[in-house]
Amino acid sequence: MATIADKLQAVRARIDAACRAAAREPASVTLLAVSKTFGPEAVAAAAAAGQRAFGENYVQEGVEKIVALRAAGVTGLQWHCIGPLQSNKTRPVAEHFDWVQSVDRLKIAQRLSAQRPAQLPPLQVCIQVNVDGGPTKAGVAPEQAVALAQAVAELPGLRLRGLMCIPDPQPDPAAMLAVFADAAALFARVRTALGDPPAFDTLSMGMSDDLELAIAAGSTMVRVGSAIFGRRAYAAAPA
Ligand SMILES: *Cc1c(COP(=O)(O)O)cnc(C)c1O
């Protein structure tokens, strides 16, 4: 049976191949290992194989894992909150995570900024964009992304790093690629509107099934869960 280390290596090989196909540097794409629903021992196994950045969807589960890994002496990990955030759950996120990729309204950003402990570096944030426009989906509408980015960029406890999106899967690869290309165009527009800040360097898109298409369109961070850790036994817990 393939171990977590084997599967990580296979995912890294897919990223390298996709970068070569797109004439991009493999170092231009960061792998975020999405460890939601898997225990601290799975994270520790991935960390032992060299993985540093981990993504969690559910606040309490994520905080428990962060604390457990630290207690086990596994250091140097970077934790990303990638799940929907309610305003009454922002404090543990501001206190424990390094990144939040799912900021989709100013109120959440203001709370995270105010609650970020002063002795920690600013919380690194991405704005989640509803790039393919479903009315019930999380994320700010593309036409509101510039205004939200400009407001978030002013908050002292945060550092705005880029955009994140979770488009619906498309059976046709060309259609999927077109959605990712829309996201890349929006990323460039927002960056220009902000005055090209060097820290605005992250376009987080692509998962286990579509990371090659996302990289072809310009993704700088792919979020990969099942291809590393296996099939999830449960789909969702309340955030
Ligand atoms: C679960 C999840 C992923 C990983 O999905 P896989 O298909 O298992 O790779 C990526 N991003 C977000 C926001 C997720 O919730």
Automatic annotation (TrEMBL):
<comment type="similarity">
    <text>Belongs to the pyridoxal phosphate-binding protein YggS/PROSC family.</text>
</comment>
<dbReference type="Pfam" id="PF01168">
    <property type="entry name" value="Ala_racemase_N"/>
</dbReference>
<dbReference type="InterPro" id="IPR029066">
    <property type="entry name" value="PLP-binding_barrel"/>
</dbReference>
<comment type="function">
    <text>Pyridoxal 5'-phosphate (PLP)-binding protein, which is involved in PLP homeostasis.</text>
</comment>
<dbReference type="InterPro" id="IPR011078">
    <property type="entry name" value="PyrdxlP_homeostasis"/>
</dbReference>
<protein>
    <recommendedName>
        <fullName>Pyridoxal phosphate homeostasis protein</fullName>
    </recommendedName>
</protein>
<dbReference type="GO" id="GO:0030170">
    <property type="term" value="F:pyridoxal phosphate binding"/>
</dbReference>
<keyword id="KW-0663">Pyridoxal phosphate</keyword>
<feature type="modified residue" description="N6-(pyridoxal phosphate)lysine">
    <location>
        <position position="36"/>
    </location>
</feature>
<feature type="domain" description="Alanine racemase N-terminal">
    <location>
        <begin position="8"/>
        <end position="231"/>
    </location>
</feature>
<dbReference type="InterPro" id="IPR001608">
    <property type="entry name" value="Ala_racemase_N"/>
</dbReference>
